[in-house]
Specification:
It is a single chain. By secondary structure, the chain is mainly alpha-helical. The chain is built from four helices and no strands. The chain is extended. The chain starts with a helix and ends with a helix.
Length: 76
């Protein structure tokens, strides 16, 4: 299990590197927000590993997808 955890860590590190190299404006908080993680650890929240800025608002993204699907149906 330790080796599996090490491979998972290496995979995440590779993704962080890819983001940092290919982003026009890479920000540390988009990869991992340490301040939020510390607050979650202090509050006893178990989801501290998920501490990062989300790139998109998922509700707005889904609504836009739905609207585009309806638009394609009318125009097609």
């Amino acid at each position: 299990m330790r080796i599996v955890d090490q491979y998972e860590g290496m995979a995440k590190q590779a993704m962080f590197n890819r983001y940092a190299q290919n982003s026009k404006r890479a920000k540390e908080k988009k990869m991992f927000d340490a301040q939020t993680a510390r607050k979650r650890v202090m509050n006893g929240t178990g989801d501290w590993k998920e501490s990062r800025e989300l790139k998109i608002n998922t509700d707005r993204y889904r609504a836009a997808q739905k609207a585009m699907k309806a638009y394609r149906m009318k125009g097609g």
